Amino acid sequence: MISQNSIEEVLGTAKVDEVIDEFVSLKQRGVNKIGLCPFHNEKTPSFTVSPAKNIYKCFGCGKGGNSVQFIMEHESISFPEAIRFLAKRYQIELEETNVEEIDPEEKLKKDSFYIINDFAKAYFQKNMMESQEGKSVGLSYFKERGYREATMKKFGLGYSLKKGDHFTQTAVEAKYNIESLRTLGLTSKSDFDFFRSRAMFPIHNLSGKVIAFAGRTFSTDKKTPKYINSPESEIYNKRKILYAMYHAKGPIRKAQECILVEGYTDVITLHQGGIENVIAASGTSLTIDQIRLIKRYTENVKILFDGDAAGIKAAMRGIDLILEQDMNVQLVLLPDGEDPDSYLKKVGVDAFSTFLKDQAEDFIFFKTNRLIDEVGNDPIKKTRMIKDIVDSISKVRDTLKRSLYIKECAKLLDVDEQILLGESNKSIRADIKQKRLKEEYATRQQQRQQQRDSGFEGLVEPIPGDQEEQRDHSQPNKLVINDDYQERDIVRVLVNLGDKIYDEEQKTTVAEYMVINYRELIEMIDNQLYKSILKETIEQVDAGTEFKTSYFTNHSKEEVRMLATDLQMDPYHYSDWDGKSLYLQTQKMPDENFIKDGLNSILRLKERKFQRTLKKVDDMILGEKDDTQIINLLKTREVIRKQLSEVRLQLGTVVPVSF
Ligand SMILES: [Zn+2]
Asked: Which of 183, 472, 475, 575 could cross-link 480 (Cys pair, CB 3.0–4.6 Å)?
């Protein structure tokens, strides 16, 4: 048990922004800090940290809390473990009773998985440093590779003995649960050790906890796999892990570059040589989760390849995924027969670093040059190659960058620029079409799920803001989208809160404040009734008339009067900020937040308008035949996309909930 005093000390000391900053790159945004959420996949940040309030909140997935909750969530650990984690981080001595005693039930939980892996790591290290076998096989192997003892310690390297069940016996004697040993893959079903006579590489998560192991064989038998890894478990998902990210994340952020290599030993050699922004993916190709993990720290990736052609081909396929994430990818090809490990040893750190700088080639050009060499003059192969290159170029979102690639690649390939442009447009259009279909499908699924979860299936109206799409039967393939919900929301705030004082000093009202913000949108309002109310308000504000909410309930036009009355009688009928959550009649209007409420209603409408314009532009792109026109449309699309993310960012920082 950790004493209450200690818990309070940790809670009082651990600054939420400091704690989170180790896992998420945070940027200042007004009084808050924002970054890409570690709990759900997103391309624009909605993960917000308030240093003043010492809490975080993600406006994308809803996760939020204090520093302890962040660690619990991020590391999948229990409350006491999170307290211990932070105590260690802040060098706080915990008052703890019964430290040794581990609750038997706890042994089955994740915490105990980490404890067991820690035990195993120490065991493998001890084998290597103390046992005769470990010293002569394991230690001498690492020494031969040139690893210093400090390096071995840093990466927790060790050795697993030849004897069939020595580890399992030792662990069971130390009262570790045999089931957990099996789950973690340290012990086989028949109670033998899983790792036998192998050099051991622990795999750490972002906070340095051991979540799995890789074992390298000493056998020269070709049938024995060179490396075996722990199976996936509750704490180890290999698609989400990058080897050495724990050690490299600081250096990556500092260098604003991530170097990706293939092998564990490459990583370790480079780190030992002082090049520490280096990681490895355990598999051959990168996953989208791994790319997003890198993107938390930098947008620049440099990939190092050994000279062999098969490896390059396999890896190149995964790189389009990185381009899609708006990241910059460079490749470096090592001289024939060399890997990063061997080449660094051969030429030394300085020459190696210079080599990386000089030889780094932009991925698109690298790919183009490589394919040109491969294809030669075969016209059929050449056509296929152009398609392949164009596909990669189309993944680059930035229009300027993309047109540059097209120009340069046209030269390299000796084809007309217009042809590449046409092909690239085709590819982009295909992407837009596919993404749209996927989105529509996902939205529908989500709505159904939300209704099912709420238990209101069939009882509630369609979710506002999401299900406003109706089929226009005169044009069967066109979706008519209206923003009635968002438009009504602005009127709602206005007729309920318009006369409140927004700024004490300037004596301005909410209505005046809102007019400033929605004036530019007025012509975009679809609903004529709302539009007339909003226009009248502009006129009043411009004329300097004092705004009264009773003005509209006493209006001469009946429909205006009715609407204002409806909205005043039932002011709570509005959606959550994201328009996704199911709204309840009992939900209280956050009167204390009326300013934010007002601004948000406008932002929400802006978001809808931009979304809708984006869809329109996409439609035009899909229907356009002329390549120059398509380029112009793509430029427009880029501008709207940026505006949309800007609005979303603002929505993320000024929402009227918990902050
Ligand atoms: Zn999130």
From this structure: 472
